[in-house]
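Lab notebook page, bench 4
Experiment: in silico fold of construct C2
Operator: M.H.
Input chain length: 260 residues
Purpose: comparison with the prior construct
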Amino acid sequence: MRFAILQNQPLTGGIIAKNLRISDNGNGELSLYGDFTITLKVLDLTTNGAPNLNSLMTFTQQVITNKLRGGGYRSGVNFLKYNSIKKAFDTSKTWTYSIRYNFNFTVNVQQINMLSQLKGNDFVLAVVDSIGYQFTDQYGRRNNSAGLTQGSDGGGPAVVGYSNWLKDKYTGVHEFFHTLNLDDIEDAGKKNRLMYHLGDNIGHSLSNTEKGTIMNFIMRNLKDMEKSSYNNASLNTVNKLRLFLRDTTNGFKYNKNKFR
């Protein structure tokens, strides 16, 4: 896995994959291989600017890179039966697989300055002045939100409050992994986990199950593995971000003149 330099990166977004291939061990396990580039675009919508944004982006890029290292494993994946001779999935037969994801990742976290730099399949993290949204946890306590991500099935967009991000540098990573389909955790016995979100974390680990969930989202359609390369499907990012920011229940405060 490589750590990409922030400067001078092309503004490509979302997921781009090449050198895809599949190995079938004949006993119900597929191993997937490929080289992936994942780009997260950061849009500064704060009123007075975010002077520490570059250092936060660098930290976020490093952590995402480290968390994705080593691939992942997922069992009980129902899909079409793979024909290793034809190197294709049989559309007439189904099968249940365990899958090992042996992906190499390059991660780019890039700042953008305008909507025209967002494309439909991009991942985006918008930085705002503050977030007014509150939630009630499983213990009945009210909590303020440091960040929010739209959608329950991944893809984003995500929004973080700048002051909250400064207070906890893992906030950007946490919200981005919601984009990659991870859920929040409130179990008091799991305060060492990255996705624990009640503010008294003692660690920031990911479980093997969570890593498998991320990999399953990244390569959600296994038939894409038959191609030499692919880009993720459109997330309709720009329109979703517009609606997300305008939703008054989220209580976002930001410089609306920047969002053009």
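Observations: The CA atoms of residues 146 and 167 lie 10 Å apart. Helices lie at 53-68, 162-167, 171-179, 208-218, 237-246.
Next step: discuss at group meeting.
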